Amino acid sequence: MNLRMIEKQWRRIRRHTASSFSKDITYPPETGCILLLGYNNHSRAECLLAADILLPEDGDLKDQETGALTFDSKYLRRALLAVRERSLNGFLTLHTHPLSSHSVGFSPFDDDQDPSLMANLYDLQPDALFGSAVLGERTMAARLWRPGKSTPEYLQELTVVGEGLTFFQLDGRMPPPPPCAAELFDRALALTGHGALARASKMRIAVVGASGTGSIMIELLMRAGVGDIVLFEFDHADHTNLNRVLHLRARDADAGILKSLRMAEVVQESGLPTRITVIEGGDVRDDAVAQELRGCDLIIGCIDRDWPRLVLSEVAYQYLIPYLDVGAEIGATETEIQSVDARVSFVGPGRPCLLCSNIITHERIRLEGLEAEEQDRVIGMGYSTDIRLAAPAVMDLNMRAASLAMFLIRHLLQPFLTTPLPHTLKEAITNFNIRGLRFESAADCVVCGYPPRTGSGSVFPLTTRKIQTD
């Protein structure tokens, strides 16, 4: 079991607990807070999700100077009420051990007090999850107390999602040195060091769409040493795909095979260590298919429709999974090319979503829910100001967009770009200018605004299709 939170929450915890590790105080006091939790129960990525941080008020913490810190009952009740009001899954109590520099662990006092506290909490909320964490100056340990169990389940790793992806062991110890990269990847060490390569080899990355941009993205990921690719692609190959889908052959188009199976074949025959899983189904807008996104560490969207992008966005915020939306945009008239852009938008918890940046719109999402004939009628009658755009199918432009995305992925594992990262990187090919575009989240946004989806897990239903059955 792991734990995930956004960088803003981690910084908030560190600011709140800074006094415990002050070098100016001879005997720093213990302090603490409560992490309100969502939950991801996917079998490949089971983890707790920090939905919010509940800081203490006056009188909420007892015996801070004695090394026997306790949480006042009114503080615990307030946390329990917040869990119920927001339909969350439970909480972790977190407290500091001020004299713990290079390692930290639960004290005999913690081991004595936790079982009775957790039993009381489960009496009040039997269907929740409760646990505790202890924070040192450089390390952290955390454990979950399952209902009816006399011993805790120790959490393994904390992932902090923000301007990069930062990882902390939850066993209370400093991490060991990263393993040396395989000789196969030694040429990449100048850009992606041993630690980042080791992390990439453990990552499970979703690629949604395997046509022009998606097929290139798969190629780049496996050559960067990514451990697992989870492919969401449900279209069959035809001859119109041959100019823009990497590795697709005429015999594949003749047979009308699934593009996903061809991509899986390419990965398996490459001799590289990357593994690939093909998700079966009909559409990422189907709930059973969309739920598989929860089992990934990163989502890459290579699709040209707004409704699927909305679903990917919702998963990113609810389950604290960063999402790169990759696209190519061509503006042209019958006589001239006005703009040629490769675009990558980095969205996810703590950042503005695709709705707030107007990359997707509610109107286009509504149109995509209509049958093709009804779409034509609505647009023809002037009932919609949006129009359906033909997606560009220019391989060299797709390559530029995929390459931008790959550089962002490398940065997330080993930062080298200027931060804070812009919401969108847009490369204008006509003048070879790269612009960083920034947006603000709208307070009432249904994806990244308030009330928050962030870290809520399954509290909010995804905007997936309702499948009709006879």
Describe this structure in words.
By secondary structure, the chain is of the alpha/beta class. Helix content is 28%, strand content 23%. The chain has twelve helices and 19 strands. The protein has helices at 7-17, 73-85, 108-124, 194-200, 212-223, 250-255, 259-269, 287-290, 306-319, 362-368, 372-380, 395-413, and strands at residues 2-6, 32-40, 47-54, 61-62, 70-71, 90-96, 129-135, 140-145, 153-154, 157-161, 165-169, 204-208, 228-232, 275-278, 298-301, 323-332, 337-347, 424-428, 433-437. The strands form three sheets. Strands 9-8-7-6-2-3-1-10-11 form a nine-stranded mixed β-sheet. Strands 14-13-12-15-16-17-18-19 form an eight-stranded mixed β-sheet, with helices on both faces. The radius of gyration is 24 Å and the shape is globular. The two termini are 40 Å apart.
